[in-house]
Amino acid sequence: GQQLNQSPQSMFIQEGEDVSMNCTSSSIFNTWLWYKQEPGEGPVLLIALYKAGELTSNGRLTAQFGITRKDSFLNISASIPSDVGIYFCAGRESGGSNYKLTFGKGTLLTVNP
Amino acid sequence: DADVTQTPRNRITKTGKRIMLECSQTKGHDRMYWYRQDPGLGLRLIYYSFDVKDINKGEISDGYSVSRQAQAKFSLSLESAIPNQTALYFCATSMGGTDTQYFGPGTRLTVL
User: Could you give the CA distance from residue B67 to residue B53 in angstroms, rounded to a whole number?
Assistant: First the structure.
């Protein structure tokens, strides 16, 4: 089945630095979602994107729906220690049923104070 | 209060035992899902339900069964647990016609 390639797999950064991660697919997606998962908890929705080119912010987080509809990007500005966690992308493939999300394998973010 | 709750949060059981994991939601969503999460494999769909009378298998349903007791409740059962069912299990909900899924806090299941 469809796979989402999420990169990087992990990041170690200093507090205050900006972070970028991305997700790519081999086919066109109609929806891109970004989630954050903290240890011992379930994924929490950060940002949802529904249109190609859409740029949406949530506080220090900004995500973009790629123009080709085959990728999405998440940026975190001025990172803080509580940004630590695993960030997942997810999406619904064009023509797919709107129950089926495809998930990336996650980017593990570590922020050193 | 959390919109999607799961019980228990942690469970240790032995091979061959029957286990039920429960999920409740107050979001008023009609669709509910069960996923398992394994290191390096991401989230994989076990079962999903569009309403009380609609149950569907996901990509890894073997060894699992589900029951949708009400719109707000969706339980996952392992009839005879085996060690490779050790994983994190997540319930999720969504409103029909939308893509966004909302996850519960998860159940960590260990099968010895």
Answer: 10
